[in-house]
Amino acid sequence: MKKLRSKIVIEDYKNNFVYKKNEANLNIQFNRVAFIFFIFFIIYLIYTIHLIHLGSRKSKVKIADSFPAFTNNLYRADITDINGNYLAKTVKSIDIGIKTSDVIDKKKLLLSLNIIFPNKDFNKIKKQLDTKKFFWLEKKISEENYEKIMKLGDKSIKPEEKVLRMYPQKNLFSHIIGQIDDDNNGISGLEKSFDEILRKSKKLMKLTVDKDVQFLIRNELIRYQEIFKSKGSAAILMNVNNGDILSLISLPDFNPNERQNITDVNFINRVTKGTYELGSVFKPLTFASALNEDLIQPETEFFDLPKSIRCDKHRIGEYDNKIPSDLTAEQILIRSGNIGSVRIAQMIGSEKHKSFLEKVGVLSSIDFDIGEVAPQKDYNFGKCKLATASFGHGVATTILQLAKGYAVISNGGYDVRPTLINKNTENNKKGIRLINKGVSAQVVTALRKIVNTEEGTAKFADVANYEIGGKTGTADQPKEGSYSEAKINTFASIFPTSNPQYVFIVMLDTPQKAKDYYYKYRHQKGGWKGTLNNTAGWTSVEVAGKIMDKIGPILATKYLEIN
User: Fold this and answer.
1) Is 394 left (phi over 0), alpha (psi -120 to 50) or beta?
2) Which portions of the chain are predicted below pLDDT 70?
3) How far apart, in Å, do the first and last CA atoms of the chain sit?
4) Which residues of 392-413 are buried (b: 16+ CB within 10 A; e: fewer)?
5) pLDDT digits over 338-396, tens only?
6) pLDDT confidence of residue 58
7) pTM of the entire structure?
8) Is the dihedral angle over the CA atoms 494, 279, 449, 441 positive or is it negative?
9) What is the pLDDT of residue 161?
């Protein structure tokens, strides 16, 4: 029994030893697994913390997910028309380049780029990666693709930030907006005049111009410039009561998105910078001047007017020898009589008439939003200068100054300041009265008759329903102390004459006869082919009439009710 007991004890010990040994082995294996698990856990924890950290830095690493913000020295305030259409806008632009020496994994980079830019030539990109130190991958990259490519985190990807001044309307407002240079400095137009404000202010600049009206007028000017083969043309549409300019166009124009040589004489702003002897459009001013001095009334009669007179060595004659010798003051204006206008001016006198022309703005410097404004020459009004100025020769002015003058003589006699800047209620304040209200009404009545009577010289502008009144002007262009055969043709108009709201002026530089153009007068069934003359009544009046027929509905809808 003792032997047996001893055997059992020994077996128990062996079994226990094996068990302990196995248990120890199991403990060792478990510890190894636990250690490995712990290592993976630590790695996972670090990775998770890293992700959380990146997420918390999202706002600080915008470069990786969105376009960077503007830098103050590059930003310029946006410019819009009266209806909020952008005329000039500052936008961010990013170019993406690749520095090939920083590429770590070429195959991985190519694969990623192929996903982001599936339409690119990757054989070309691969070749550039092999042969070039640096190359541009994408110019003006979209924001979506910018986010994708920056999230690759490849240090070879080099973004370059640019700030661009964009002009969405291209040529449409070029002479108004102007342009900037490569250093972001305004060099013409509003960009130059308001350079400092546009740099410092983040508030957009709203103008008085209307894109739709501007578009229609410009298109017609371009069309008729081709028909009449003119060297250039210009137009301005302005509110006679507050000076708000709805449209200002000078042709040829330019695309401010492309650098243009604005010193080229072809790109002169013919509305503000070009000075011209504008001819008979001055006659309503002479008429108004005499009325304002109470020297005449519209029915005042003039008898035995000669067909020509001499002033020093120069002869002044009528453009039309059929003009009667006996006319009223109003008829002189309607028939566009030169000699009658001289007689009226002589009644006024040099000093008073010059003062009147300066007072209404046609012969005085004008304060305007655009810096490209021609300085006004000071004239010595002697006997002959008084005579020629009465019908718009021998004195030069701008289309802008003429627009101001016509606004004053048609709006009840109030001073106005032409402007392109929308100032809301400030624009509605009337200026001081410069001439008598009754004078203004008499001038407007006569202007209407020039358009809607048989004797008038502007019958092609008699567009139905718009009550247009206006005066033609045909002037020979000065040349080396004399005059050439080249003409400046102008039509200055106001409408509606029952309650004047707008002055509209069209000028054509050196128009020619249009042999194939078809004229139709007052909506009659018939008409005729070919221009009988290249005077304003056949050119600028025709253009203005066609334009007003198109812009009238827009103006009536947006701004006023036209009877």
Assistant:
1) left
2) 1-74, 259-265, 425-428, 521-526, 560-563
3) 139
4) bbbbbbbbbbbbbbbbbbbbbb
5) 999 999 999 999 999 999 999 999 999 999 999 999 999 999 999 999 999 999 999 99
6) 41
7) 0.81
8) positive
9) 83
- Name every residue whose Cβ is closer than 8 Å to that of residue 482 and which is 6 or more positions away in sequence: none
Residue type for position 140: K
- Extract the tokens encoding 470: 């206006």
* Angle between helix 399-410 and 437-452 (nearest 10): 110
Q: Is the dihedral of CA 142, 143, 145, 150 positive or negative?
A: positive
For 240-276, the DSSP string reads TTT-BEEEEEEES---TTS---TTSGGG--TTTT--B
β-partners of residue 315 are: 310
| CB-based contact 76:165 (threshold 8 Å) | yes
Look up residue 509 and give its two tokens: 């530089």
Q: How far apart are CA 58 and CA 65, in angstroms?
A: 8
Give the contacts of 480 (CB within 8 A, at least 6 positions apart).
Answer: none
**216-245 as b/e: b if 16+ CB within 10 A:** bbbebbeebbebbebebbbbbbbbbbbbbb
- Check whether the bond before 284 is cis (ω within 30° of 0): no
Residue 387 and residue 392: Cα distance in Å, rounded? 9
Task: Give the torsion through C-alpha atoms of 388, 394, 399, 401, to 10 deg.
Answer: -80
Dump pLDDT digits (tens) for 291-333.
Answer: 999 999 999 999 999 999 998 878 899 988 889 999 999 999 9
Written as six digits, the tokens of 327 are: 């006319």
341/551 Cα distance (integer angstroms): 33
- DSSP tally for the chain: helices H, then strands E: 16, 16
3-state secondary structure of 536: helix
- Determine the length of the chain: 563
Q: Nearest 5°: phi and psi at 304?
A: 55, 45
Whole-number Cα distances in Å, 501 to 238, 239, 282, 460, 552:
8, 6, 20, 21, 12
